Amino acid sequence: MSLRKHYVSAKAWLTFCFYFLIPLCSLLLILHEYPELPSDRIYTRIYWVIPTALVIVLLAQLGSYYKKGETKRFVLNIGFTIMTIIWMFGLLGGGLVMTTFWNEYEFSIHMDKYVLLIISVAALNVLYYTFEWRVYRKENSSFLPPEKKKGRTVVD
Amino acid sequence: MNRQQLTYLRVVALIMAGLVASLTIGNLFTIATKGISVTLPSEEEIQWSIDPLQKEILFRTSFSVRNQGAYDIRDIDITAQLVKNDKTRLFSYEKQDLVVLRGTNTTFDLLIPIDLDTISFVDWFSLIYKNTTLQLLLDIDALYMYGLVEFTANEAIDIPWSQPPLNISDNGTIQAGIQGLCTIFNITENNSIMSISDVFSLLSIPELYYSSGNGFVFNLTITSYSETLKNITCQIITPLLIVNGSFEFTASFLVGFEENTPVFRIQEVGIEYVA
Question: What is the interface pTM, i.e. ipTM, of the complex?
């Protein structure tokens, strides 16, 4: 664990802004500016954003306690990515199809391709965290298990 | 993989994440706040007229799309079907690849001509003499945000339909005659028992002759069969445009009273193709 543990990391601050503060302000703004919209939908999203965003911020902060290459940091980063997918999925309404009414007529908004894009980006992030874990783990022998460390010493 | 390559991967992942986040906050909120909306026609805004010369029924309506979003709405496809109340399809209509640019309000006028030669004679006839409710089944698809988001709408709009011959002339006599004829057809079709009021309304039918000039003839002749019975004969000649010929519909009815009982008797009904 690094000495930075006493401070709130930059990643946690950014996460707080982008996943909590900005979406929450936007939702409250919509609620205030568009009273004709069904408020229960907006409240559902607000109740969704608050807990999930706080978990994401917590994971971002906990991840910063560990150095690159540490398994705990890798696991926390994967958890962070999964939580962002869940967060976004809830923000989209919790499904692939969003139903809305325009002048008494029902319209469906299909977002399957969009959700696929979100999953692709999440997969890219998972790939990055995996490579980061593997690359830094190799470079810092103190993260390796005892038997591997021993083998590495022989090679050196 | 070395650190340099890892940095590149990180940059790509961050750019993609930023892109998705901006799309979510910017565009889905646009949709949620009705920055994009579609106004479909109500039943009062769907108008129709009949042109006996062209043998055509023309439906006129419009719908508008308001796009205050960040991207164009593309590939708008409209499929419309007009069906009778028994779900028989009268016609279908398609319009494809319409576009609504961002920041614009666009109104699409729909002029839907129905060639009466393309629908069956039975449907044609039923449209001519019956008051009914037609349904316009609308199916709209559109793509937004580079095709990542798709809008769909499936709506059924009721269109009240009154028999077009009533609109042929403003003359009250002609309208009364046609109304009486429609009553006859309805009674015949429904096989219902005549009431005294039906008989009185049929006895009050005037004689009439209407010709549209292109061969369409509507002729109603009334003769006395006995002191209390009248013979009503109706002849409708409908020219065909595709082939050189016409359909002649002839029907004859006895209407009146016999021994104080209402009488409605079909004497003769026939459809004949005349080349």
Answer: 0.71
